[in-house]
Design a protein that fits this description.
The structure is a homodimer.
Chain A lengths: L2 H20 L30 H12 L7 H16 L15 E5 L2 H23 L5 H7 E6 L4 H10 L2 E5 L9 H13 L3 E8 L11 H10 L3 E5 L10 H4 L10 E4 L1 H4 L7 E5 L2 H8 L3 H6 L23 H35 L4 E3 L7 E6 L3 H14 L7 E3 L2 E7 L7 H20 L4
Helix pairs in contact in A: 3-13, 4-6, 4-11, 13-15, 14-15
Keywords (chains A, B): Catecholamine biosynthesis, Decarboxylase, Lyase, Pyridoxal phosphate
Cofactor (chains A, B): pyridoxal 5'-phosphate
Protein name (chains A, B): Aromatic-L-amino-acid decarboxylase
Chain lengths: 442, 442
Amino acid sequence: MDSAEFRRRGKEMVDFVADYLEGIEGRQVYPDVEPGYLRPLIPTTAPEEPDMFEDIISDVEKIIMPGAASPACTELETVMMDWLGKMLKLPEAFLAGQVGEGGGVIQGSASEATLVALLAARTKVTRRLQAASPGLTQGAIMEKLVAYSSDQAHSSVERAGLIGGVKLKAIPSDGKFAMRASALQEALERDKAEGLIPFFVVATLGTTSCCSFDNLLEVGPICNKEDMWLHIDAAYAGSSFICPEFRHLLNGVEFADSFNFNPHKWLLVNFDCSAMWVKKRTDLIGAFKLDPLYLKHNHQDSGLITDYRHWQLPLGRRFRSLKMWFVFRMYGVKGLQAYIRKHVRLAHEFERLVQQDPRFEICTEVTLGLVCFRLKGSNRLNEELLERINSAKKIHLVPCHLRDKFVLRFAICARTVESAHVQLAWKHVAQLATSLLATPRD
Amino acid sequence: MDSAEFRRRGKEMVDFVADYLEGIEGRQVYPDVEPGYLRPLIPTTAPEEPDMFEDIISDVEKIIMPGAASPACTELETVMMDWLGKMLKLPEAFLAGQVGEGGGVIQGSASEATLVALLAARTKVTRRLQAASPGLTQGAIMEKLVAYSSDQAHSSVERAGLIGGVKLKAIPSDGKFAMRASALQEALERDKAEGLIPFFVVATLGTTSCCSFDNLLEVGPICNKEDMWLHIDAAYAGSSFICPEFRHLLNGVEFADSFNFNPHKWLLVNFDCSAMWVKKRTDLIGAFKLDPLYLKHNHQDSGLITDYRHWQLPLGRRFRSLKMWFVFRMYGVKGLQAYIRKHVRLAHEFERLVQQDPRFEICTEVTLGLVCFRLKGSNRLNEELLERINSAKKIHLVPCHLRDKFVLRFAICARTVESAHVQLAWKHVAQLATSLLATPRD
């Protein structure tokens, strides 16, 4: 949608809202629809090609309005999460479908999703241990619980452990900054020998620092064998999995209990929209609902009625699935794939520019939209380069440390980025490097 | 703002967004402003009278845009929370000001705020006990921690205890459904005698069931004396405290450590916007940040730099304070007060209509916008009346149980509600009651 159409459609939406408010007394205060009314009314998958905006708007009146805030808000979310799950080719077990035991929910952020998964895992292991030995108190169990993530995992994972009141240990990553079986197994054995109870592992696909990928095919089977909950955090990288050529990065997701990524990061859905799937929704509900048996009576673990307030930390909910519905239909799967591919292509374009300059080095493999690079030489030199880049304020780079190296991160993320911007950015960086290297070092 | 102006202004906003996106390459990628730049640029209190929309929009360009997403997003939130705190006449200690140790933060929901407060209290008491006896493990402490709320408190309080891994006990409320000193003290003594550690109390102002108010002036001093964190949940009623005639309902807030209410419920700010204040921001930060000492070096407990990601569960944040800024300025304090007063007036109008019908009874004192009423007679009779009301779908009532009584709840909450709606609603209810009472009972 170009700027001119945005102005036109935006103004139509303003009138849509005003008309709705003017006519609101003509509407029923409570919907006539039955639970499950929505799914049959819309396709089972996202469109490959873009839909017409007119069709989307008329569907709002036809499909959403009769369902009011509830159940429309809940049911569209369930179906949109199925759409998105299918785009990623998630295993069937993660989808809600008509009768599935899994399903998706929109969280506010990946940090929230990690915490929710940890709390669900904590409850599950606590119940299992208490069933085995009824004498055990929750406190006695929590003292022994230990969770794991790579030393490259986002700080929010450590934070989730803090909030959840359990130990979290960092597993040393390998030379490619990936968590591997050997290091995880080693930590497990040591902790079990000390009487601790390993219960939760967070694997990261696309780390914040350098977009490295934990080895799911190694880590997954260990989690299953050791009866540990495996949560996958693919906050940034997840969007790319809608492209067949990147889907292999998700291989091993079949071992996971929960999976999360942020469409608000790289799939053109406005913040916030963090997509989380679980294989067994009852595991989530169990952590937030006092009496899971009660739920069963309400068939809440069938696909028919979903009570999302038991899937998340807050009770209140917004109608965030509308954003997904509009974006998926306005772009179509092909449009979204093209968007991802363009960013990756531009990252590689920047990578080549760096490689052609002997003063610089590429620090990690460029897989998606992030290029980690640096001037050959000291950390101090690169810190000075970053200082000059960010104080010039033409582009903005956020650095990271990879082991002992201070590294610059060039991230492709603007919606409208083109090759010309990448070329300009590199020219700018190269010039600043030239002037930096020309200044006498003390 | 009437419908015609909404259409005009809404379309201006669409153009504002489109212009911004078209001109974005002309803007700096990083702001020039220094931390603390925003506060001096705007008034220290909300306007009494409405501002002009033109002035608000031009302030967005003048005041917000130069501060980009950060620090503008953070600083406007801090100042808006001060504005709102002053509207409520919160004690100075809860305000950030220039150098305050307290301050406000926007959470997503009251349930989130309760959980955040509970986690902060849990961390604080754990650190205190471990400082006294370093041998104590967190697990050993958490096993003994116990929190309290009235038996009328929202279910999200019980949920917070579940997530926080601590016991939560319900204090029997009195004849007016309020938590009183005697019942709380009794529970405290019993639990302390059993070796438990009371650490957290949630007092509710305006309960969900019948808008009853816990007795802060009794409960507060006990919390302070016993060194228990007092959190006040005024999710619905809080908005009314901007009116001098209702402010007395908040008396005793000076005893609290944290206070929360939802401007998205009754102050015309769109969902979500849950306003939470704390007296000591370091208490919150301590629960979510691993090394509170590190923060001190960054002066993060001064009013100058606020890192809200340490004040909440998710890390990501939206620019929700813009909603507050627009609403407070579009209505002015007087406009917001008038809105609250109108709703309360209409609730009393409905109350009088009920009182004039000898078949009905009012069940609890009408303080704000909620009227609890029922047909004199059996619960079954009232359940049938509710069934007829809600299946007619002209109005929608949510019931509650008060002790053994099934009670109907008439809540004034629509933005555009008028006396005519109240009269119609009552006529409708009275007619359905007549036909119900005419049907032969088996």
